[in-house]
Amino acid sequence: MRIDRTHRPWLIGSCALLAFLFLIYIPYALLSTRVGGGTPLGIVYGIIGFGFMLFAAALGIRKRFPIWRIGRAQHWMRGHLWLGTMALPVIFLHGAFHFGGWLTTLLMVLLIIVTISGLFGAYLQHTLPTRMMHEVGYETIYDQIDHIREGLVAEAEQRFQSTAEEMAPSTGAGATVVLTYLDTVPELQTELAQYSAFYENELKPYLQNAVKKSPLKARDYSKAEFERIRALLPDSGHKTLKALEEICEEKRQLDHQIILHRTLHGWLLCHLPLSLALILLGFIHAIGALRY
User: Fold this and answer.
1) Do residues 211 and 238 both lie within one domain?
2) 220 belongs to a structural domain
């Protein structure tokens, strides 16, 4: 969800409503002999705040049943953000800025955490798509990333095996692997051995995700390594090396896309269960307050 000019009416409306509620609260707090959640005005604030929380929670139901054409999804998203955020100051007014007993203290702590996590999620949804567009030139469908990475491994292996043939086409069909070519061109034996070691020990494990902390994740290191190998090989091998470098870069960007995607959605692991706990405890608090 992008926070753009379409949010302006929600921002203005939320600020106006909050200002109105504060204007009512000031004389109430100054002139009343008793303030708090148990007073008539305190109960009104509690109903409004809890209503905002319920509306924010209803977004999950709206997403679960998209065939229910109850308003546009974008309107629900904007309402979820702004009314959900508004719940925090309104509930503070409800409690006269006091946490009260253990249950109300727990509710306030949960509400603060849920509000902060919600704002953080809104920030992520606003910024990460732009970052992904600029930082992931090879962006693809997330569910296809594993399949694409497997294809990169196969392509890299094919490119690597064709190095000797490209550098020594006169050696015939048998010169299809670097190790074979080592015996046919002794003057390049050391250089090709370093190239083969780089591929087998660094590039291939990185493409296969066989190592967790491959130095090739760092673009500067990767560039330096490919430059080192490029200086070892004759010009006829540079084309294949360039292709391998591009494969490495695509793998790096796909990994970065995974990180951004998980960051974008991972915050929900905190936000959703705490939101559910908040709503359940809110009902318990409301029922208890009505009984006593």
Assistant:
1) yes
2) yes
* Tally of domains in the chain: 2
Would residue 76 count as lying in a domain? yes
Look-up of token digits 């491994």: 153
d(CA 253, CA 231): 25
- Whether residue 243 is predicted with pLDDT greater than 70 in this model: the reply is yes
- The pLDDT tens digits for 46-75 are 999 999 999 988 877 766 655 556 667 777
Per-residue model confidence (pLDDT) at position 71 = 64
59 lies in the same domain as 156 = no
Same domain, 174 and 256: yes
Structural domain boundaries, residue 101 = 5-129+268-291
Q: Are residues 147 and 241 in the same domain?
A: yes
Entry pTM? 0.74
Confidence of residue 151 (pLDDT cuts 50, 70, 90): very high
pLDDT (mean) for 183-203: 78
Residues 276 and 255 in one domain: no
